[in-house]
Amino acid sequence: MTETAPLSLCDREPHVPADRLVAEMVPPPRFDSVRFDTYIPDPNQPSQTEAVRVLAGFAAGLGGAHAIGGGKRGFLGLGRSRAKAKAPAGPRGVYLDGGYGVGKTHLLASLWHATPAEPSLKAFGTFVELTNLVGALGFQKTVQTLSGHRLLCIDEFELDDPGDTVLVSTLLGKLVDAGVALAATSNTLPGKLGEGRFASADFLREIQGLAAHFRPLRIDGEDYRHRGLPEAPAPFADEAVVKAAHATEGASLDDFPNLLAHLAKVHPSRYGALTDGLKAVCLTDVQPVPDQSTALRLVVLADRLYDREVPVLASGLPFDRLFSEEMLNGGYRKKYFRAISRLTALARDAKGLVA
């Protein structure tokens, strides 16, 4: 087995130019090859099969030209005259309403892939990535950049940030006027602790004037990452993690508390670039996350690692003990459960790194 010097996330301080933010508004690598026919509905959840049917029809209806300055295409490809701003009847977007792990991102990416348009006419990103784009380009330039698109998919709409919600809602209103179709998933509002799914009423209320443009599409089910799968593997010893990091080309090796401190110095919009080229992430001394700000940064990193299918090998505590009971019962609980679910899946993927 060849020994290599592992990389360190703590040594990386990436800078991401604005044009990269635009170019990367496509489904993440984990969802490059997903399609509606690769989504496996739970036979006990008919809403999942219905979601595939509705979204496939939604995608098929988005064909046709969409040219700035001429006749525009509205929802379902209906022509719109630039001189008449009357919106076509019916919703022009779809909101996927379901708990974590039911395959909302898989379906959203499948919609992007199935929409009959060149990739340059479709955009896909998380809510955070969209707000970062506005910050990098400015509001008007972002409107100009996205107005020629046929479809904008927004994953994980952040209803817990009122300021950004208003900003993005205003942006979406401009894009709807330009003939852009919308699709979104979201998290839930702080304090909404009830059922294990996201509430479409919260989403539609928060986007206010845009609500009429969205058709809620409920997707019931349990987290597919745990459907029929074993429990998360127990953490390994420090020595095993260090050995695997040295034996795996392209692996990083960091002490978990040091990594958490480093994340505070890097804007979350750069966490994707932070993981560029990594084949595995090895962490020693995993401990409970000390505070909510740190926990939310870790959620973003977990999302980027999961998107890129980077396995995570760790020592210390298991990932289901990262967040305190107070955090898991608080307003961001679904973000934390999503992070636990995704890190658990990546820990399973990492088992093969240990000889």
Explain this structure.
It contains 13 helices and ten strands. The strands form three sheets. It has a five-stranded parallel beta sheet, with helices on both faces. The protein has a three-stranded parallel beta sheet with strand order 8-9-10. A two-stranded antiparallel sheet has the order 1-2. It is globular, with a radius of gyration of 21 Å. It starts with 17 loop residues before the first helix and ends in a 5-residue tail after the last helix. It has 355 residues and is an alpha/beta fold. The longest helix has 18 residues, at 333-350. 38% of the residues lie in helices and 14% in strands. The protein has helices at residues 18-23, 46-60, 104-114, 127-137, 139-147, 162-177, 200-206, 238-247, 256-263, 271-274, 292-307, 325-328, 333-350, and strands at 72-73, 79-80, 93-97, 122-126, 151-157, 181-186, 214-218, 251-255, 280-286, 312-316.
> What's the N-to-C terminus distance?
10 Å
Integer average pLDDT: 83
What are the segments in which pLDDT stays under 50 over at least 5 consecutive residues? 65-89, 189-198
Q: β content, as a range?
A: 5-15%
The coarse silhouette is: globular
